[in-house]
């Protein structure tokens, strides 16, 4: 018995992938906006937006880890890769520090003498350093998985050639 494979035009497959990618970005942006509004504008506790936070974190990790296991490289040039990801890590840490600083100052501002109060600056510094280390470790884990996936992909391609 012969099985018939339906041949798909690669352009249609690429268009479908692009549409799904754009939908993922749109949904992720809306979830981030929802978290931001609930956390900062409505001053709701974390329990009120925990579901959105979990969905956002799980989907980001799934995308990064799944792509890495498949052998997808985020950048092709290793020199550019280090520069780009170093900037991303620092940028994420700065954003986290700013958000935490604004929230901290709005909640405990009366205890500080101003935004240049030593305790407030210490909070910002500790937040920045801890988020820098955490983000760097997470990116390092993803890069390790990416290397493993790349080797696995190369081995599979070499086996297919033989």
From TrEMBL:
Top-rank taxon, per record: Bacteria
InterPro entries, per database record: DUF6773
Pfam families: DUF6773
Keywords, comma-separated and alphabetical: Membrane, Transmembrane, Transmembrane helix
Transmembrane segments: 21-41, 53-72, 84-102, 122-145
Protein's UniProt name: Uncharacterized protein
